[in-house]
Amino acid sequence: MHWLLWSVVIITVLMTTTAWALWLERKLAARMGSRLGPTMVGRHGLLQPIADLLKLLQKEDILPEAADGALFNLAPILTAVFAIATVAVVPFGEGVIAADLDIGVLWVLAFGGLMVIPVWMAGWASNNKFALLGGMRAVAQAVSYEVPLVLASMVPVILAGSMSMTDIVHYQQQHSWIALWPTLPGLPAFLLFLLASLAESNRIPFDIPEAESELVAGVSTEYTGMKFGLFYMAEYIHTLVSSAIGAALFLGGWSGPFAPGLHWMLLKTLGLFVFIYVVRWTLLRFRQDQLMRLAWVWLVPMGLVLVFMAAVVVVWGGA
Amino acid sequence: MAVDETARNYTHPLYDTLLAAPGLNVLAGSVDQLLTWGLKNSLWIFPMATSCCGIEFMAASASRVDLDRMGTIPRATPRQADVMVVAGTITVKMAPRVKKLWDQMPEPKWCVAMGSCAISGDFYRDLYPTVPGIDTVIPVDVYIPGCPPNPEAVMAGMLRLQEKIALVRQGLFPPHGSSKEDRPETAKMANPAVRRLLDPARDAAITAHQVTLAGTPSPDTVDSPPLPVDASTAGSADRDLEALLRDRFGVTEFPKDAPPLVDAAFHVELARTLRDRGFRQYVTCVASHWPGDPETFEVATVLRSTGSGSQLAAWRVRVAAGEPVDSLCGVFAGADWQEREQFDLVGLRFAGHPDLRRVMMPEDYVGHPLRRDFASDAPCAPWR
Amino acid sequence: MGYPLDTLRALGVTLKNLVRPPTTVEYPKVTRPRSERYRASFALLHDENNEELCIGCLACERICPSQVIAITAGPKIQSVTTGKKRGTATDFTLDLTACIFCELCVQVCPTDAIIMTRTQEDPGFSREDLVLTMDKLYKNEKDRPAAWGNATKLLGMQEQEAKKDE
Amino acid sequence: MATASLAAIVFVLISAVVASSLVVAAKLLRVRAKVDSPLKRRTYECGEEPLGPTWIQFHPRYYVVALVFVIFDLEAAFLLPWSLIVRELGMAGVIEVAVFALILMLGWAYAVKKDALKWQ
Amino acid sequence: MMQVAFGLVAACLLLAALFSIGSKNLVHGVLWLGATLAMTAVLYLMLDAPFLAGIQLLLYVGGVMTLMVFGVMLTRRHADLAVLREQRRKSRGAFVAAALFGTLAGATVTTPGLDAPAAGSATTVELGRALLTEHLLAFEVVSVLLLGALIGSVVLARKRDFGATR
Amino acid sequence: MTPYLLLAAALFCVGVYGLLTQRHGIGILVSIELMVNAANINLVTFAHFRGGTAGPALALFALALTVAEVAVGLAILLLLYRQKGDVQVDDAKELRQ
Amino acid sequence: MSAPQPQHRIELAVHEGEGDLMLVNFGPQHPSTHGVFRIKLLLDGEIVVKAVPYPGFLHRGVEKLAERLTFTQLGPIVDKNDYIAPMTNEQAIFMAFEKLLGIEVPRRARWMRTLFAELQRVASHLLWLGTFALDLGGALGGGATVFLYCFRERELVLDLFEEVTGARFHYNTHTMGGNRHDLPAGYAQKVHATLDVIAARLVEYEHLTSTNRIFDVRTRGVGTISSELALGLGLTGPVLRASGVDHDLRRDAPYGAYDEVPVNVMTETSGDCLARALVRIREMTESIRLARALIDGMPEGPICGAKAIKTPTQFKAASGQVYVGIETPRGELGTYVIAGGNERGAAPYRLKIRPPSYHAMSVLPYVLPGHMVSDVVAILGSLDPIMGEVDR
Questions:
Q1: How far apart are the C-alpha atoms of A54 and A94, rounded to whole Å?
Q2: What domain count does chain D have?
Q3: CATH no. of C34-153
Q4: Which residue in chain G is spatially nearest to D59 when comparing CA positions?
Q5: What's the CATH fold of domain B3-198?
Q6: Is it the case that residue B323 has pLDDT exceeding 50?
Q7: Rg for chain E (alpha carbons), in Å?
């Protein structure tokens, strides 16, 4: 039953990490803008996420009269569930995994794709135009980038000959990080994966669905209190989990010298997370049609080419 | 530990239950402290930034003062905000919207009035379009003086709000003991007559007005503005304006200190002529009301030639009250909004204007405030 | 330049700023030094003999564009020090709720009685908290550092050379 | 049923419990307004009353995006089993799959040429 | 233990299916269909077919659902989504469905040899091998089918698209 | 094995019921989805209990078919809606002619 | 990319079954309307079919106030109109009053006013760049970072103003006939130090915005305004210059010290958002150059050519009509004064302020149709509207 233990541990750690990842992001963003970020709530503002959580828990719950109540209330929960559930197949160390499914990569992709449903649900159920536009944009963007994401993640699968994340990490332990070698499908595939993950988790330059300068707050425009909190949390969980998956698929997961595997995995995850946020606080955003064009015209064929390149590498290397 | 229920518009069921249960007072106390701490330290701001103070509010969020240090995040939607910072003048056209956005914020919520305009309406306070202080519309918790308050003062105001939140939860608010009305300063205030109308009757009136306004949302029926006229035939600026006016438009007097007065019949023709002679930029038009006998209106139009040695061309036309002036919309696209504004404020009609609606004042406003016979302190507020 | 290079260049800028020291001044803990002329609130002054300088001439009340000053002129009294007759103000209110801090009242004061101070008033819980009554104004003389300007200096600055021409 | 599958299902259940527990906690802790304004539950639209319906009929072009996505997702679903046995099938497999992909890319080329994937 | 789990999943699945048919609101109906499909994925996991479960989630719940949701949004003003249904058709439908279920259930229960122990599902590797060897032709034909669907739908949906483009 | 088959049968019948009662085009598509799903459950069940790769392979192909069916079905509904302004299938019998 | 001419009446060919149009309120309270401004948008999907702007949510009646207040009192009042560039507001109104009253402004005061105006232009354009980036990049992204940088440097300029006037924002430093505050000792060094910092940082902003590909694709070809439309609508300032009209009052109708310190006018031809952005960014460099030249050549002498303000009714004009336009960061800020207000003529009879932003906003119905919702934000931001000025 150690998997049950790991499940509980992983979820707990994920939730707490998310809270302080939020803090980390605020601090990082602040420092990038010559500011200090939270300093007054607890030492270095470390208690800020707790205060936010307590505040959100107390806020009044408003259900707009024109909204579809059931879907409106269900959407944030589903968003959080799908965001958390993705992490089930991510190995954080040798055996440190909640469910070592041999279709790990597929599980990740499937849940990533599912995220579309609650987001659209939230947008539609709010009966708010900004939310609806945000929801439509979110769906269009997520489905567009799902295809490159699938194709990019197929590269490690082909190289390792397995969909299990543990196997992929093992493969990288024996050979090398896929992002490094074979460089040709490896590095571009990693970048493609990163790009598609950014888009899937709605991060700049792909944050069109919640583009607050246009759509006020996107799908979450009508949400108050903890329901909004769940969206907010899910967003960060999604980014964290995407970083973890990227680390496992392309950066060798827990493999690394000197220190225990868990440290390496967390370090790589955090590194990717910070990278995503540094990019977020640096770039402006694209327009929706430009994004879609980028995905369909460039990234999809590029993904296919990478997949076949990986296959050729495997066939020739194996022969 | 008595909580002053009058100070807030919400109940806290869990806390109330704990308080009611025997022997749980201590627990209730610590839970309350924790919850209050949470409320205090996570104040998400809904910036109701309308004017100058909004810029200083932005400066307060920027790097030098950095409101984020105390955990504030500006939210664009009222649904996720805790504090409405009213930064800037609130007009009667805007006030119902502010009230509505305030209503749309979830409890517990607070309001900070930032700067003179939000507090009292500033020097605009007794003018026709301005609300004399946002506290006549929604309850305000903290007043930050200044015009605009500097960013540090905004921070001070937010810290003061934290203080107040704690005081309210401990039942120590209002701190003065006596009610607001008894305070001697009241009598000395620049505009003491305007009180926060906390009475529910008035809130209901405002709300009812909005609900009726909201009753008929209809797609806009107004057409898009006319296509701009192609002025590509324009030549170079004519320097001999006086000769032109004298020869073609029969102007005889050229006052030293004012633009020449042209017969109203020539208004459009003159504009077109000047445009073709290089005065292609529409600068402005000014209508003025001259009561007396006979009551007249005057419109001064200013055009400009562009580029090196730019020159102004200005003239006036005068019409009797009640008569319209020909619209220049057919000559200059810019005349559209300018003439609308003059119509709205001065009450002069423009013949041939495609879209002569109010532009500054609310659609249902009656009167034209820039007429000389409109008292400069006549209040106007359709919802008042 | 393509997207990747542009992105790297932009990242270069933000990362450079990441290592620059932040410009934040931690306000309640540290107060940023203000310029000498900084004007934030008001004070009424006493002269060196501790006599109130305000003579109740209403010049500031008249010039105030925002009409926030209300003065009740008192009876003429004989000055203790100079022995001359002078006016007084029995009440002086400056309502900060509508003040625009334009410094005109300071400029027109014939006796340099009203000046501005360099620290701002605290935010209040009610409009009444922001009314500067006579007591508060005289209290500000002691509590708050004075700004550079008073009527003499301001007028001197503006009329110094102009007088020469006359 | 494999342990891993069971673990995965249980994991989803646990995450559901965690997510809903937050909502339940909020239900317990949140405040209730004493006086309710009728405007509170109106849809937010920049402070104005909402104009016209929100749930309008959307333009068909949105549908094309979803459609192309599903088709490509399906393609991926067919590629995945192959990706595990690339080594085993060798070049022949690569070519077979390449033909499969190329045929689909014809459709892609058509859609791109017709600008069907443009978001408006 | 296993039986209880199956019972729960089966109950959820059937309920969701019923709701998806019976829901008055079309959007709800489609979302209930999503729930049905998700429960089916759980069933696949219980049947040791994790690959199909994953595909079910990815394609059906993530993909087809999106498609149908979009379909709902563009075939009809979804402000009034109530699905028309006549009482007569309802009872007739119920009768036919019940009869069909009776037949099917009867056949299933009476068929011998259905209680054989599980032989174990095919792994994904085996599936891939089968697809690219035994079912190669079908595999390639699928691509043609999808091509047809793609082009057909693009043609249908883009027809009479109107201006306002850049 | 029996309970799985019974479940599939029940699901299929729900689909049939829906097919017979729904008049809205999308409702009919939903019903068809349910029926295909029931068939897929059967395929997977048999594959699980009897072994072999035919079951999952067939299920995969069924998936592909369903996707194509939904895609084209919705597109046709769309066309219908353009012509009729409605998607009540009974009213659009002329499509068959 | 669209042809450089205004997109106007788009036929509302709504076919049955082709999708409804959606009517959306954009504002009055919206993060990207730069204050309180409302646009009713008719959307086809995400494309704007029709846009109807509604200004007036900040109409505060300054022009009515001018009937009541005297010439001397109006200085601090007009500060609040264009609250991004209060210095130029004061300058504009006092220049009109001085022309009306025939008051000569000493040379030093003219140079000081010009120096302030150029510094104000830098501050104003910095704020514009920050908020424009905010529109394009969002408050939770790169836009916010650019915004923070711009505000950081804007604070430096405000510090310079505070040094002279004692106020950060609404200075009331111009007065009838000159300036109220003289430059403090050592001011030139401070100005140079500040401008050094800003000039160096401008390159950084360009890396984040104007020379970045994402900025480019978001702004190029978006919101194109032709020169004819721009002239006809009375657009001025950077918006006009971006449309290819080489017109700048500082050069073409010099006032202040501009006849002694020549100005290089920045123009672009394409008339889109990118052109407007580039014009403003280049104007910042030019203004820095001008400010340096002005502070270096600052003449000695009196700073005020009239008696300092002592009473409200000090200055009187019973008749006359005067129009004076100056080039503020947003374009031609005009003041039309008709004298003879109060019985003794101490107040204007009618004051009309011609705000460049009001004209700029009137272009919206012409350029918005055909663009996407995201572009609405970009176009609005590129016009650099200040609602205090639009509505007064």
A1: 36
A2: 2
A3: 3.30.70.3270
A4: G19
A5: Rossmann fold (3.40.50)
A6: yes
A7: 21
